[in-house]
TrEMBL record, chain A:
It is a multi-pass membrane protein. It holds the Pfam family BPD_transp_2. GO terms for molecular function: branched-chain amino acid transmembrane transporter activity. This is Branched-chain amino acid ABC transporter permease. Keywords: Cell membrane, Membrane, Transmembrane, Transmembrane helix. The keyword Methyltransferase does not apply. InterPro entries: ABC_transp_permease, LivM-like. It comes from Seohaeicola zhoushanensis.
TrEMBL record, chain B:
The keyword Oxidoreductase does not apply. Keywords: Amino-acid transport, Cell membrane, Membrane, Transmembrane, Transmembrane helix, Transport. One of its GO terms (cellular component) is plasma membrane. GO terms for biological process: amino acid transport. One of its GO terms (molecular function) is transmembrane transporter activity. It is found in: Cell membrane. Coiled coil: none annotated. Its main location: membrane. The keyword Transcription regulation does not apply. The chain crosses the membrane at residues 6-29, 41-60, 66-84, 96-120, 140-164, 193-211, 274-293. It is a multi-pass membrane protein. This is Branched-chain amino acid ABC transporter permease. The lineage of its organism: Bacteria, Pseudomonadati, Pseudomonadota, Alphaproteobacteria, Rhodobacterales.
Length: 350, 299
């Protein structure tokens, strides 16, 4: 529901995402806090946040492919991996950051198109399985290529990112890099549903036969949806490569792809807010479990570190199921309901 | 020449094991329209149940005779299948295929966590249930365990095919696979169908675990077999029980040939890539697999 007292005198005001002065104020305050954080937070905290930003970028891409266009993608982690390996290779060849990240995005996009091409013939679950093929093939191909190309089993070192003589390889440098691209990712995901291609994605999602009848080139739109989602994955992969300083295939598993999907479902598939809430929520749960797990470990009971990982899988699985069964629109919908209740207070909703 | 035929035989036997896992996948889909991405985890759960009632019980000081252990395992499968239906899929009846697919994703994460939490991540040795060794047939050697598995797969395929196309219950399940809402409005119990699907699917998956793991090592990594069986199920057609072992044969033979002749040239990649490349190729030519139902879409 929209806040009261808003009327549109021009098209420009109607097109705004943030409609009230208050929402703009809140956002700038939030932005200022994020920008000021490196001054006080510990390097560990900054690392965690950078990781969160990278995950957010990848899940935003998944939102475009899965949430908007309705094409299931279970290879997002492999696409992140393609971005990471591209970035590692290019940085070793001496390419600067501003060239590496767009190049990683484009190459990842090109790889995803290769696996989206069957969209011309197959749809739905069968198409999802071609992305599964991409995920399974990724490590096999990397490991089989000669060591000098992509590092094979050992992996590849990554040169630290340098921009205008400034080393971005420090925790705060990486934090700002991640923050900038996460902001870009969120900005684009908020605006994509309002564009022509975004509406085409939505139509294909709702009913692809009807979309075809309305004159939307369904196959092309599906391929473009995969391409768009993989662009985000490529950016996420490039920043991840800079952060890890060393890329190996073992970081990009099928299980990670499934986690990305889980975050998106918990957050909500139908709103651009979904990826943000989902990633933040799952990361918080994971960190909470890690802290609890460490406390248990130190108290000296017989539980191993594997139990913590198992418990976080269990909790995420339960969260996804709870979201599917009780709130298919995810945390984003709960957030919107809370906002509506807040705006209407003291009057009841409905 | 003898070498080539030996490779073909081994490929065919291994392929039929893939086919068996694929059957467990197809059974669930054919009876409930649930695309279960977590089939590999179901195999692991079945294997761990089996381990618990055989080697695990013996190690804990309560040796159980093998026949009783197997019986208990299958009872465990029934309980597991019913629990999955009752807690996860019953509330989701009538939801879109997308939601049900996502429930499969959730189940994958959940089961992986649950098995690790209950049984731990360490690998264990499975008891020998099927006889080990090799059968000498002229110049060729046949692995007894895989041979029994292959015969079992073929018999099971015929039985399940008859069940799904001849028996009253099987035809009802087919109606559910066609469309939940329509089946429901015609008086078919969708709940019952999903419960039967999961119980049957878990049992077949456990049988696959017996063939696959008898006398070998059980760990959480076994779940990978699920993703090997997916292209097999797809190649055969998701609705076709008979397609699964046939597709398994094709994939198994090609995989064996690739690993014998192409792997030395490609640094070991060919046999891993081939099942998926074959899957994509088949999808491009026949989008519904070799024997799948061709669905007609209307606006």
């Amino acid at each position: 529901m929209r806040p009261t007292g808003i009327w549109h005198a021009s098209y420009a005001t109607e097109a705004r995402v943030l409609e009230t002065v208050r929402s703009r104020l809140w956002l700038s305050l939030f932005g200022a806090v994020l920008l000021g954080l490196p001054l006080m937070a510990s390097p560990w905290m900054l690392g965690e946040l950078t990781n969160l930003f990278i995950t957010l970028i990848a899940v935003c891409g998944l939102y475009v492919t899965v949430g908007m266009a309705g094409q299931i993608n279970i290879a997002q982690s492999a696409f992140v991996g393609v971005g990471a390996f591209t970035a590692a290779k290019l940085s070793n060849m001496g390419a600067p950051v501003w060239a590496v990240i767009p190049a990683a995005a484009l190459i990842t996009g090109a790889v995803s198109v290769l696996f989206a091409l069957p969209a011309a013939r197959v749809k739905g679950f069968y198409l999802a399985l071609t992305t599964l093929a991409a995920q399974v093939m990724f490590p096999i191909v990397i490991l089989a290529l000669p060591m000098s190309w992509l590092g094979g089993l050992v992996g590849m070192p990554v040169m630290p990112p340098v921009l205008f003589g400034l080393n971005l390889g420090t925790p705060s440098g990486l934090y700002f890099l991640g923050l900038a691209f996460a902001a870009l990712a969120v900005w684009t995901t908020y605006n994509l549903p309002r564009s022509r291609i975004g509406r085409a994605f939505r139509t294909v999602h709702d009913n692809d036969s009807a979309a075809g009848v309305m004159g939307i080139p369904v196959t092309r739109i599906k391929i473009e949806a995969f391409f768009a989602g993989a662009l985000y994955a490529g950016v996420a992969g490039a920043i991840l490569a800079y952060m890890l300083q060393f890329v190996t295939v073992s970081s990009f598993t099928l299980f990670a792809s499934v986690w990305y999907l889980g975050m998106l479902i918990v957050g909500g598939l139908h709103s651009p807010l979904g990826p943000i809430l989902g990633v933040v929520f799952v990361t918080l749960v994971q960190e909470g479990l890690h802290t609890a797990g460490n406390a248990i470990l130190q108290s000296g009971s017989g539980l191993g570190g594997g139990a913590v990982f198992a418990a976080s899988s269990l909790v995420l699985g339960l969260c996804i199921l709870a979201a599917l069964i009780f709130e298919p629109r995810g945390l984003a919908h709960i957030w919107h309901q809370l906002m509506t209740a807040f705006r209407l207070w003291p009057f009841p909703r409905n | 020449m003898i070498n080539l035929i030996q490779i073909l035989i081994e490929g065919a036997l291994v392929g039929l094991v893939y086919g068996l896992v694929a059957i467990s996948f197809v059974v669930i889909y054919r009876a409930s329209k649930i695309i279960n991405l977590a089939q590999g985890e179901v195999v692991v759960v079945g294997a761990f149940l089996l381990w618990t009632f055989t080697a695990g019980a013996a190690a804990a000081g309560y040796p159980i005779p093998l026949a009783l252990g197997l019986l208990l395992t299958f009872a465990g499968c029934v309980a597991f299948g019913w629990t999955v239906e009752r807690t996860i899929f019953r509330p989701l009846i009538g939801q879109s295929a997308f939601t049900i697919f996502m429930a499969g994703v959730a189940l994958l994460i959940l089961l992986r966590g649950l098995t690790q939490l209950i049984w731990g991540a360490q690998s264990r040795s499975m008891p020998v249930i099927l006889p080990e060794g090799a059968l000498q047939l002229g110049p060729f050697l046949l692995n007894t365990r895989l041979l029994i598995g292959a015969v079992f797969t073929v018999v099971l395929t015929i039985a399940l095919h008859a069940f799904f196309t001849r028996s009253r219950l099987g035809l009802r399940l087919a109606a559910v696979a066609e469309d939940h809402t329509t089946a429901h409005s015609l008086g078919v119990s969708v709940r019952q169908a999903i419960a039967v699907a999961w119980i049957l699917g878990t049992m077949v998956a456990t049988a696959a675990a017996v063939v696959l793991l008898s006398g070998s090592i059980l760990s959480l990594e076994v779940a990978v077999i699920g993703f090997k069986a997916l292209p097999v199920a797809l190649l055969g057609g998701l609705e076709s029980i008979r397609g699964a072992p046939l597709a398994g044969l094709i994939i198994g033979i090609f995989e064996a040939l690739a690993s014998a002749y192409l792997d030395p040239l490609t640094n070991g990649a060919a046999s891993g890539l081939l099942p998926y490349a074959a899957m994509i190729a088949v999808l491009l030519i026949r989008p519904y697999g070799l024997f799948g139902w061709r669905r007609i879409e209307r606006l």
